[in-house]
Amino acid sequence: MIVICEECGTKYQIDPSRIQAERVKTRCSACGNTIIINKPEDISQSSPNSQPEQEKIAADQLSSSSGSGSEYKSPEITEKETKPQKKGLRLKTKIFILFFFIPVILFIGAGSLYIIQLQNLSDLMTNESSEAITELAEHIIAEKARSIAAEAKIYLETHPELEKEDFYSNKQFREIILQKVGETGFGALHEMPEDPGKPIINWVYVDTKLVATDIRNLKEKLPDFFDIVKRGRNGKESAGYYEWEYEEGWRDKYMVCAPVKGTPFYVAATTFLDEFTQPVDQMQAKAAQIRSNIRNTVIVIMGAVLILLGFIAAFFGNRLSNRIKNLTSVAEQISMGGMDAEIPIKSRDEIGDLAEAIQRMQDSIKLSIERLRRKR
Asked: Which residue, among 3, 62, 58, 60, has the nearest Cα to 34 in the 3D structure?
């Protein structure tokens, strides 16, 4: 197979079987020009030690035209030139990773962290507020029970003739005990004997049906209520939560049993705790709604930013990649001898500088070829 250098006219004879790729490049040993060698379409039918008839005719024609002084040379085709080079990530892919994928990860991470911190802050504020209000409500109920117990002690000391069977019928004493606690709560008075086996009598209560009755009868129906009452013994104060059936169903109530000092009687002050915590519950609901609105707004903004980043990365990545592809195509044409290839210069940035450099290289190669032709 005969190959001729377009610059200096040096002829080379090569073995087609050594060409592994579809197209290889080598350099002329005389002038250094790059020579492109295309792989013959049918190598298998030719023997490595024989030439096709067409190549012999071409060799005879070249020999006669170049004179007796011309000789065929065999350029060295290295393994690196015959093997196709492995391609790495394309420029468009790199741009997408650097200017879209990585910023998206960072943006999503920052947005998620912001939402989580907002959630934690909201939960902390509402939970702390709820705990504070609950503690305040418990303290108010306890102080109310102690206050009623103190008033009852004073009244009993000033009215020693008053018998316990007459507690409810005595209007002044009944009003002292049945003071309002919260919005719907009230006070009550029961007798706690020292002997655990004796009955616990309820002497003053809002429901007349339960006056002068044994509280132990409520043990099965209201075990938590009975447990609070039972713990208030021997002058010790007791408190706790229990469920009470209301119009809307079962609700939690808080009760404090304060002793009337110097007597076997206890004042029980009780009310629904949600009467105090309801404003906090409403605040929690509003906070949850605001948190949800902020989260949705952040998600919408994140989505819009991601779409914008994707569009910008795709637009500039395609634009830059296409411009480089055009210059690469022009450079390939020049390497194949197309000295009249048009080089587009559409920008004044680094790509434009590269296009101008290729154009100057094209002009320089044209001048070099012209000079060689004149010397020949």
From this structure: 3
Domain chopping of the chain, boundaries: 1-85, 128-279, 337-376
| Report field, pTM of the whole predicted structure over 0.85 | no
Q: Is residue 68's pLDDT more than 60?
A: no
**Among candidates 130, 131, 145, 136, which has minimal Cα distance to 239?**
145
Closest listed residue to residue 252, CA positions, set 164, 161, 138, 366: 138
366: amino acid identity, one letter: K
Instruction: Report the distance separating Cα 322 and Cα 303, nearest Å.
Output: 28
- As a whole number, mean pLDDT of residues 78-98 equals 59
- Residue 239 pLDDT: 95
DSSP summary character for residue 218: G
206, 184 contact by CB (below 8 A): no
- Give the C-alpha distances (Å, rounded to integers) separating 105 from 93, 115, 151, 309, 313: 16, 15, 68, 12, 15
Q: Give CA–CA dist 105/50, Å, rounded.
A: 62
How many degrees, rounded to 5, is the angle at CA 148 between CA 146 and CA 153? 95
CB atoms within 10 A of CB 311: 11
Q: How far apart are the first and last CA of the chain?
A: 25
Amino acid (1-letter code) at residue 302: M
Q: Tens digit of pLDDT for each residue in 35-57? A: 777 777 654 444 444 444 434 43
Task: Please enumerate in sequence order all residues whose Cβ is within 8 A of that of 230, keeping only pairs 6 or more positions apart, or say none.
Answer: 200, 238
CATH architecture for segment(s) 128-279: 2-Layer Sandwich (3.30)
Strand stretches in the chain, DSSP E: 2-4, 11-13, 23-27, 34-38, 72-73, 180-181, 185-191, 201-204, 213-214, 238-246, 249-259, 265-272
Residues 355-364 have pLDDT tens digits of: 888 888 888 8
Task: Kindly provide the b/e burial profile for residues 164-190, where b requires at least 16 CB atoms within 10 angstroms of the residue's own CB.
Answer: beebbebeebbebbbbebbeebbbbbb
User: C-alpha 292: how far from its chain's center?
Assistant: 16
| Section 343-365 average pLDDT | 82
